[in-house]
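Exercise: predict the fold of this chain.
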Amino acid sequence: MLKDLSIPHEVWGNLQLALAEGFSNAVRHAHKKLPVETPVQLEIMVFNGRLELKVWDCGPCFDFDAKLNEIMEADRNNGLDLEVLNDACLMPSRQKTLEPSLFLIAG
């Protein structure tokens, strides 16, 4: 069905990669200790000039900022300086109001 939309080959490939990564991430991490029957919901929406892929899982919420701070603190203790990862140019502000366990991939 999506192939009928004349999506450029590169975009189609990126969408397939994002779908595979999002789904496998949900199964491997969010659903790690959940029954195999636990659903992963996928939604693809097509807008004028863009695609939006949503992957919902039933796992616990992931606190990106806390994990980033944990990694930076551990690396700081090892003599590395990853503060550059918090630079606004490299790490743009992220929307803080996403529903729990919702990941958006748009392109």
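Check your answer against the key: Confidence is low (pLDDT under 50) at residues 100-107.
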